[in-house]
Amino acid sequence: MSTRESLSSLDVRRSTHSPLITLVGSVVLVSLFSVAPWIVPAWFASILMNFFILVIMATMWNLLAGYSGMVSIGQQAFVGLGAYATLFFAIKGMSPLAAIPLAALACGVIALPVTYLLFRLRGGYFSIATWVVADTAMIIIGTVAYLGGGTGHYLPGLSNFDPVSLTHVQYLASWSVALVVVIGTYVLLRSRLGLVLASMRDNEVAARSAGAHVTSARRIVFIVAAAGCGAAGAVLAISQPFVQPGNEFSMSWTAEMLFASMIGGLGTIEGPIIGSVVYFVLFQWLGQYGAWYFIVFGSLAVGIAIWQPRGLWGALRDRFHVELLPVGHWVRERRSAK
Amino acid sequence: MNQETGASQIPESIPGWGSLEFSRRMGLKALGVAAAAGGAGALSQSAASYAASGSNVIKIGYVTPQTGALASFAGPDNYVLKLVKASQYFAKGIKVGATTYKIQIIVADSQSSPTTAAQVTTQLIQAQGVDIIVTSSAPETTVPVSTVCEQAGIPCVSTVCPWEAWYVGLGGTLSATGAAQSGAFKYCTTFFFGVPEFVNCFLPMWNRVQKQTHAAKIYAGMFPNDADGNAFRAAFPPIVAAETKNAWKFIDGGAYQDLSTNYTSMIQTFKSGGAEFFVNAPLPPDFNTFWKQASQQQWRPKLATVAKVMLFPTDVYALGSLSNNVATDAWWTPYAPYKSSLTGMTAKQFAIGYQQFTGQQWVQSMGSTYSLFEVVIEALKKVKNPHDRSAVANALHHVNYTGISGPMNFNAKTSPAPGVAIIPPVGIQWKPGSKANVGGKVWPWSPYVVDNTLNKQVPLTGVLRPTNK
């Protein structure tokens, strides 16, 4: 049978290299980052902590825009709601750390009805509507006196830590949430849903015609991204630890997510992480030149969008044929079949 | 107690004084301010090891918003630093005990971001090993910097931030009327003023204009739903009511959203309530929008006394003729009879030099920035070892001197909290420039001292006039 012969002459693999390398590399990185606050200077640990918050947000934004074509410019809604959910539980007497999963859950629950509103819209209209959702959420939260209104509220429940261990707790919160989010995304993309998402990313009409439930896949992704951003908001609240509407619901969160995903490469797991690294390196380096960093960031984003729409990671992957966190399959002709 | 505000609505303590004022365009936000601040706790040990070292250089870190939304506060930095560095202690060193120490100033830009402010402070302490940190300009800068210093055990002097915001930002609490309730800080000190001084600066001007015009004693408050706005709403009307025995009626414009673009309903509230006087604490662009719309909609209060805006000539030029006779507070003017404690230079010479150096009109933040370094020298004169953090911090808490910003006592009986020196502001009005002003150059708009109730040493240079006839 010619089909079977040709099939057997193909080699289907996930990794471009031994999975052992990925595994060992991951274990080493994870252990290094887990002990980082005890070995790196305090100011560097605080930069790393902010970096992980951006990694969480960018990874979530990439799921939305990179895989499902939903360009949300209102993700700060869920960052803010996550922060405020944490504040709410903390005022009720819960430990803010225990409130992180609850905040994520709350954001997921809120996101479900929101999808029925937003999914009636497409493209630019969808984007603008997400922004409206975010501003509405901010204005509503700003009127709740229990949560501090427009003034904001100090996040209780962290005063029992001394300054040094508080830094460690804050760092570990952001690092562990980032780890869970990246691993979760990896698992999600390797699942059956991931296959649907990859097909949607490549060609939505074709995916639909092949029987993929595009709308429900979208809905799940929107809810997951809301929960992820909610967790980021919770970590943000813990890291500050002061919660104020204008800051938590700031448009700049979405700008940062967008920048990191775009620079790094949409539609890949590695892209947003690399984009976050670029963002933080540039931010530290250009900080001393004042407003120049806005100009450099803007030009870089425009340049990448025009000349390298697959982002930095896209360029590296195409050139060197490497996948650090493989979610697809590589099909090659088997040499031994000849 | 004025019924408009309702005594029951006044909170036990004023929330959010310690919060940081965030505007949406500040780029990377307050992400991890306190985290970075907390991180500094880990530095106290390394800081202590620096203290033990016998270096004969005293390093002063200066954290200032040179870029971003607050950049106008830092406008005089270069000029002030040039003068300070040329003064004898900084040029030739200061003798403490038997040793002569050189003084080095390291400047760090906060980018108007609380996060960056905390990070650069941590870096100054850890990487540069500074002995003292001075900082200026709004809670967004002074609160995170002071928090880091207090936790790291580095003596700190701050200014240009209402003392209440600084106090609560460091963890103190205030009573309903805004008095310090609990909290004392070992390493941090500040000199400026607070809400009571705003009231006592504005109220005499209202009374005088009210006598001239026989307008109704009704004032409008434009207070946004943010930290500063809510703090003013909580404290300003009760203090006015208490001081005037409820003679003045307050009309609240409502807790609007920052960066709103339409103030029609607020203006209607003020009009229908018959408000003749106006006080506010908005973001600068919001006042610009509001004031133009108020003019278009024919609401013209007899006197506008604004806080937080119209401090700098550039804000005023942007409003053009609508700036005429708008009043605000000034914590420093070149007309005061004060001299530099470093060089003996007069306030007037200081301002004229600035105008020659920059080609721009003097700004009030130059005085406060200069005084930061005067205060440090005063404290260093009183210690045996400038690297002894506790001794320097203690000396800062007891500084009592007169310099370019006038008499300043950090340990006065009248201080609202430990380590807080009050410099009383005077009332100014913006009017077209004149040759009679300092330097003799005519600027489009200049500030004139029109009310010196709080500080009689500052002479009047103009006549208080109603903002609108």
Explain how this protein is built.
The complex is a heterodimer of chains A (338) and B (469). Chain A has a two-stranded antiparallel ribbon with strand order 1-4. In chain A, strands 2-3 form a two-stranded antiparallel ribbon. Chain A has a domain at 20-251. Chain A is built from 15 helices and 4 strands. By secondary structure, chain A is mainly α. Chain A is 73% helix and 4% strand. Chain A starts with a helix and ends in a 5-residue tail after the last strand. By secondary structure, chain B is α/β, with parallel strands linked by helices. Chain B has 2 domains: 15-193 and 336-422, 3-Layer(aba) Sandwich (Rossmann fold); 196-329 and 428-451, Response regulator (Rossmann fold, 3-Layer(aba) Sandwich). Chain B is 37% helix and 19% strand. Chain B has 15 helices and 18 strands. In chain B, the strands form 5 sheets. Chain B has a 7-stranded mixed sheet with strand order 2-3-1-4-5-8-16, with helices on both faces. Chain B has a 4-stranded parallel sheet with strand order 10-9-11-12, sandwiched between helices. In chain B, strand 6 and strand 7 (180-182) form a beta hairpin. In chain B, helix 1 (33-41) packs parallel to helix 6 (138-152). Chain B starts with 32 loop residues before the first helix and ends in an 18-residue tail after the last strand. The relative contact order of chain B is 0.14.
